[in-house]
Amino acid sequence: MTTLACDITLHRDGFTLRAALSAASETVAIVGPNGAGKTTLLRCVAGLARLDAGHVTLAGRTLDDVAGRVHVEPARRGLGVVFQDYLLFPHRSALDNVAYGLRVTGTRAAEARARARAWLDDVGLADRADARPGQLSGGQAQRVALARALATEPGALLLDEPLAALDVESRQDTRRRLRQRLRSFDGPVLLVTHDPVEAATLADRLVVIEGGTITQTGTVDEITRRPRSAWAARLAGVNLYQGHARDGRVTLAGGGEITVAGACHGAVFVAIPPAAVALFRSRPEGTPRNVWAGRVDGFDSFADRVRVHLAGAPPITAEITPAAAAELDLAGGGAVHAAVKATEVTTYPR
Amino acid sequence: MTGAPEPRPVIPAGVGVLSVLAVLLLTLPLLGLASRTPWADIPQLLRDPAVLQTLRLSLVASLSALALSTVLGVPLAWLLARVEFPGRRLVRALAVLPMVLPPVVGGVALLLAFGRRGLIGQVLFDLTGWSLPFTTAGVVLAETFVAMPFLLVSVESGLRTMDRRYEEAAATLGASRWTILRTVTLPLTAPSLAGGMALCWARALGEFGATISFAGNLPGRTQTMPLAVYLELESNPPAAYLLSFVLLVISVAVLLALRDRYLGQP
Amino acid sequence: MSAWRVGMLVLVLATACAQSPAARSATPRTATGDTAGTAIAGDVTVFAAASLTDAFERIGQVFEARHPDATVRFNFAGSQRLAAQIVEGAPADVFASADARQMEAVEAANAPVTFAGNVLQIVVEPGNPRDVTELGDLGDRDITVVLAADEVPAGRYARQALDAAGVTVAPVSLETDVRAVLSKVALGEADAGIVYASDVAAAGDAVTGIAIARDHNPAAAYPAAVLEGAPNPAGGQAFLDLLTSPEGQRVLRDAGFSTP
Description:
The complex is a heterotrimer. In chain A, 26% of the residues lie in helices and 35% in strands.
């Protein structure tokens, strides 16, 4: 079983990356907002950026060890890398690009080309072997880049935003092919993406990085059920708050109080699905334990629902039907009351 | 991706007039040269052994200067483009200085460094009894001094504007540093290298002020074509026009061979 | 008009406008008369052989002191170069050449007057480290010799001297004017050269001069003339008069020239 393990500390320009993770024969998506350090992490694993502290190992072999002064050059790491923008050599044909890794490590020309041709065939581009990268479409270039990385039979694969450069139409098809390819790859795969859908489709496991640290790891299911970061909450589509729980009430860090069902104590996350939020023009009377006033901050219309953003203590996003939105007269201004049943609120320890 | 052809852009009147003036300024001297050249005498001229000797010397010297400029200039360009070292800006300014220095000043400076009583030249003379002035090697040195900066500037620019991530991609595929240089860096900067070499060679071929002050003037050893033209102008103008025309033809041929790439665009 | 036609038109016009050189008018100019009484003013342009540099600059100062409204502008170069420039149409008032040949090449020269003479000398580094005593020593292959090119008067005179002495020299360079020969020796790049006595005098301590025997030494004669079509003919004539006057002659003698 090939395992890629890393524990990375890196300081640069006032930004610190501090992350530890390991991956076996699985696809791990490194996700998070832009500027969080995802690509930096990948570059460290590839050997393109130097660590300030920590180590990187692959299948027991040390690639980086700052304490032990070990740094294996990128060329010797046995990793396959697919870069954002693919970086196919513009002066070489698709076939020569795929064969490049084999040629520079000593494989004879004829054999390298034969194996490259087989790989191109595998990704469905045998007829484009002689095309220059400039003549390939975005999706085709992506497949050639992948074939090029795989041709050297690497121990692990690193992909940096593999679908970001594609337009919407080719993205779905390419994503599907990529998923098949990654499934059939033996070793660990680290995949960087800012797109939650891409992460959910391609990966077995997610690692969420925000501001240079890992805020949450787990399967897509685990993360969406119990999001622990703003990004994860966006993925899950819930309202997320931090607070302090005591006797069935949680004092929220950003202001406001929520009554919850169930026992919990101490530092907690509070998650409220938008669909559980009801909106009223006047203060309602009834069973919901959580009622507070707010102001409409904006709203998004979709075909069958409207998401309304409320500013208040706390701020919250509610999801209601278009008919209800019309009744509410959202654009009219004035106070709007939000009501949430305590039983709809999920809390879990921080 | 087809559609109706775009309408031709309207040229503003000022731009048009000034452009025509610029073209006239640049081409009229060449037309003047072409008009005064005694065409019928060209075959005879090209058979004159003295002329052939001068031509051969010019070509040998300028190509040697090109070779020397390439061997020395490319590594320096790589260093300036890729490595941050203290004093880098100063080194670059000094390396480019010959481009703005009047050539005669360059010649004087070369004498003070490499002449018989020069900084280095004195040591060389005391040790071996040999000095660079008045030799073909001296011509090559003078031409290299004025022409190398052209190559340097072009190659450095090419290296800077090149996307370095291609080199990273090659590294992750297993290529050694030397292999990356050979298979990725050089091919991607080939246009700027070619453009720089062409400018360098043309400059070396045409150099006059530095060569005459440093290397002197002796047919067969140090009298290059521009020098021959200068002297012939005094005694035999038609011969001077002919030699000038030959130089002009060579220059135009070089430019045509480069087509649009002489500006160093990849 | 298509681009092709425009190009042909320009080419034809350019060729039509090209004139053959030396197409100067041959009509004799009427004498301006005595210059002593008229006020000399404006620029006076003098083209003079390189060997005349120091002497003429001093004479120019005398001229400007005498004619406060006038300014003398010099162009010093090899006589062959100056002749070529004048033939191509350079505007000059006076041409002073180092030999008659270059003066004859300029058809526009009016009645040249020989105003000075010069003899050749061997010039070596100060103190004569290579022990050069006569022309014959220049044939020694260990000595680095620089001469002026054959088109330069000084170069022709030097060749005459060497031929007369029966010496074969292999110079390392043929300079475009005599001052360049001087500077190569003064800089230490060459062991010896052949220049005028006046050049050695002008260089002072920077060089040492070795006399050349009279029977091998061609007498150089310097003619000067006002040019046909000169912009300032009165000023040019005044300069010429100063050259031949006792004061001018004294300056020339002090500079190492001999009487014509």
